[in-house]
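Ticket #4471: structure export looks truncated?
Reporter: QA, pipeline team
Priority: medium

Steps to reproduce: submit the single chain below to the structure queue and open the exported record.
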Amino acid sequence: MARSQNSFVCQSCGATAAKWSGKCEACGSWNTIAEERALAPAGAAARKAARGRAVALEDLKSVEDVPPRRATGIAEFDRVCGAGLVPGSAILIGGDPGVGKSTLVLQALGAYANKGGRAVYISGEEAMAQVRLRATRMGLADAPVLLASATSVEDILATLEAGPVPGIVAIDSIQTIWTSAFDAAPGTIAQVRTASFDLVRYAKASGAAILLVGHVTKDGQIAGPKAVEHLVDAVLYFEGERGHHFRVLRAVKNRFGATDEIGVFEMTGQGLTEVSNPSALFLGDRNSTAPGAAVFAGLEGTRPLLVEMQALLAPASYGTPRRAVVGWDSGRLAMILAVLDARAGLGAGSHDVYLNVAGGLEIREPAADLAAAAAMVSSLANRPLPKRSVFFGEISLSGEIRPAPQPELRLKEAAKLGFSAAVVPPGIKAGACDLALKEIAHVGELAKLIGASEKRARETAPW
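Actual output as written to the record:
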């Protein structure tokens, strides 16, 4: 007979402790350890492993036809998933509260159901009347989406198994789902992990595609243990600033497609609208005559993307210069400033530095080093950069400019949007693009190109 025992589990990382403490020794989080009740086998006979059965071994050659992907009809969503949903896959969608996760999932299910697919939306946070109100506002009231409100994983699985196998099932959200196997509150480590495992197992056995909506913590991570991200086939983050009207769906894990792929949406009163040309959106209100603004020709997954990087350098009012970064890595900014000081002699490190990626987009690509450096040098010299020019390239600690991957896609996107010149690392070919290329091999050449070295020499001259 099984007896119950209590354990203390960290709600942030899932580590187990013998007793309660204020700080988790595994991840260092405070006040995240909670007591949970679990079932433990009693006696040596219960702990003895049962003899398993042999399974058939096969080679790597496929003996079955690959099932077609299930396209929802929303091109940006299907693009991030890898041209559609794979039957039997499980996808975890995370994002900040109010960013539009439920809206995105409901639109995807509505578009799939309008094409003749069987879609089921199970809400654990909202009543069915609330979901219907949102569907009416989005123009999806007539979409044949099957709706239910439930939080018990046993009830959800019994409902799904009672009828035909659905093509797509959405669970909103996984933090509200609980199972009777554990005497713990919904949202705890044991509940989230067990409920996710049961839903993923149903997806693999039935062939239905499961969409799990998850909340995001203050650190920007999906709430719950990392084991949940290991269970699913794809992890998507829905990002966006409250002050901006666009949203970005980014893939950080995908077993059936490219990672770091993005889809861009615009939030409107009727829901989310796809943005087929995000570069034009991010550069729509650009003022190219102001100093400190450089256009970066980036690459997100397989999609080229042009975005403006803005920099402002001002004399420090206090002893310690201030660094403020929005949309870029602060450590990367400190490294570029050090390289500009040591290799180009600009003295930018003694200034207050403010760097912003226009539109609220977050850039994680090292190829943005050259654009960020050009924006900072332009602001320091108070000279605007050449009009209709783009920048891309990685800066090393020696000051050399290194090439970026797939430069042809970047240049092609720049030419399509009307840019006529590009400042690039050595060895880049324009190809079929009609762009004037300016090759620079060192950050010192960048300072001379903008004219910051002469300005700095005049300021520091003794006469």
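Status: closed, not a bug. The export was complete when the record was re-opened. Leaving a note from the reviewer for reference: Confidence is low (pLDDT under 50) at residues 40-44, 456-463.
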